[in-house]
Structures are given as C-alpha cells and as structure tokens.
C-alpha cells in the first residue's frame, strides 16, 4: 500500500453524506447491507448488481470511501449514479456499436439509444440475483440469454458472478464469467467505482502510457502524456480533463484525501491490466477503474498486452478479484 503525506488542510469529514434512501420503505428491502465492525457496504442487486455505498459509520455520520448513490439513482434505477457497478462483457465504449468477430459483424446498435457508441456491456442494465449471503459477504449472479428480437442485444450467452465481501475494513470483489455459448465469445470485464473528489484529492499509480482519445472518447493511439508522470507523484483530478485508458499499470492505485487524513488503495489481479481515469474538468466526478480491456478493444489495433480483452471458448470461465483497502489517520 502506498503511504502518502496526510498533512491536514481542512476539517475531516468532507464526505459525511447522509444516506436518506436507507430509510425509504420502497428501497430498503431491495438492498443488501454488509457489516464488518464500523464498515458498511450497501449492495443494490436490482440496479445492475451495483454498490450503493461503501463507508465507515462514525458518530458524525457515514464517512464515504466511494461516492454514495443519490436518491435519483434509485428513483431512476440508474447505475451511473451509484457508487460502483460491474462491467460485463466489455468495458467502456465500442465504436459505432459494432465490430467484426469470427468472420461476421456484431451489431449492438439500439441497445441503448442514449449513447452513440455501445457502452459498458449489458450486465449493468439488468437486475442481478442474490445467492449465498452472510453478515460480511454476498454472491450475486447474472445470466444473459440472447434475444434476436431485441435490437442490439449481445449475441452470446454467458453467466457472470460477483462475490462482494468485507474483510475487516477492506472491500473485496471477486468477479467471474463463463461463456455458455456454443461458439467463442469476445470478452472483457471491470468495475466502475466513483470516488469522493475534493480540491486536495490525489491519485497515485504507476502506468506505462496513455491511450489518447478523439472527441467521442474513443482511443486513437497509445503514447506519452504528462498525466503518466503526474500519476506517479500524485495527480490532482483537476490537472487534466481525463476520460482515458492507461495501459500496463502496476495493478495498484491509491486515492488520497490528505485534507481529510485518509486514503484508499485499490489492487487488482491479472488480467485487470488496464486502468481508466475519468476526471472531467470543473466537475465533482472521479473514477479510477480497473478493467481488463481498453475502450473499443474489439476494434483497436495494437499488441494484445496494450489492448487487453480476450476470447472465451465455449464453456471457458475467467475469474479475478479487486480489493480496496482504506487507511485513516
């Protein structure tokens, strides 16, 4: 875990946001609450298998390690406004919602009219089933059955799982997927966590290069960028307007709030060999996403270790885990 300076700049507790939706009788029964000591994780299986909150319960209120879900996220069943959500069977965008694979065209147009390019796969748009659960863990399951009558539907059958667990104060998400089709399936996965963003927030990570992007946030080429060096020394989310993939990171990143005396270190197993930073200018959003593939990986030209993703053979399964370890003081 990276140890960064925790010199105080302003009072502790910027993100002591109350979770009013926990008391909403229409919402509370749909949630799964995990507890370990003072740490809580709230899971919203019906909203894309997403996390609604990850926080420490304090006398002053919940201190959030991830940006908590809004009431609007529940009202509109919108995973994009949750704390984090799973990405299956690919991460981020596919240009024009189509790509060539195995001698044919996979056309995903129409799967979500809000976006010109296919976005984040399909598992985040559907409810997940709750499996085994304990006080500290829960298993979620999602199975996709292709529907040829549904425009832009993912044409491969697959099963996805998440095991979400608290180990002390740390959060662990073990993710897996299995190709249930009778033919090979292109594949990628990831998680999409949002973090609290303050004027003093810093992001630390070792990366080898950045995928530059066009106006549609689709990658054009892999190369140097000042953000690569800035991440090594602690990058302010305000330093650049980013929505970019970083290739071949060390599978460890730290989000630090030195003004609040705390930090959160994210680590990932292979093949989460790629990282996305979403830090738009003049905004409150900050994402540091562990993913197995770059944006538009099914169309991208480059070496496999630069592009990521894989092809799952019939019956083949892939599994890897993500961890978030908090530190305060």
Which oligomerization state do the chains in this entry correspond to? single chain
- Strand arrangement across the biggest beta sheet: 10-11-12-13-25-21-20-16
> Sheet with the most strands?
8 strands, antiparallel
**Content of β-strand:** 35-45%
| Order of helix and strand elements from N to C terminus | EEEEHEEEEEEEEEEEEEEHEEEEEHEE
Number of domains: 1
Q: Which overall shape is indicated by the principal axes computed on the Cα atoms?
A: globular
- The helix fraction, in percent, is under 10%
In CATH, what is the class?
Answer: Mainly Beta
CATH architecture: Distorted Sandwich
Description:
With 329 residues, the protein is mostly beta strands. It has a single domain (20-328), classed as Beta-galactosidase, Chain A, domain 5. Helices cover 5% and strands 41% of the residues. The protein has 3 helices and 25 strands. It has helices at residues 71-75, 226-233, 304-307; strands spanning 32-36, 39-44, 50-58, 61-64, 86-87, 93-94, 98-101, 104-107, 118-119, 129-133, 137-144, 158-167, 170-179, 185-187, 190-191, 202-205, 209-213, 219-223, 242-247, 252-257, 262-268, 274-279, 287-291, 310-312, 317-328. The strands form 7 sheets. The protein has an 8-stranded antiparallel β-sheet with strand order 10-11-12-13-25-21-20-16. Strand 2 and strand 3 form a beta hairpin. The longest helix is centred in the last third of the chain and has 8 residues, at 226-233. The protein is globular.
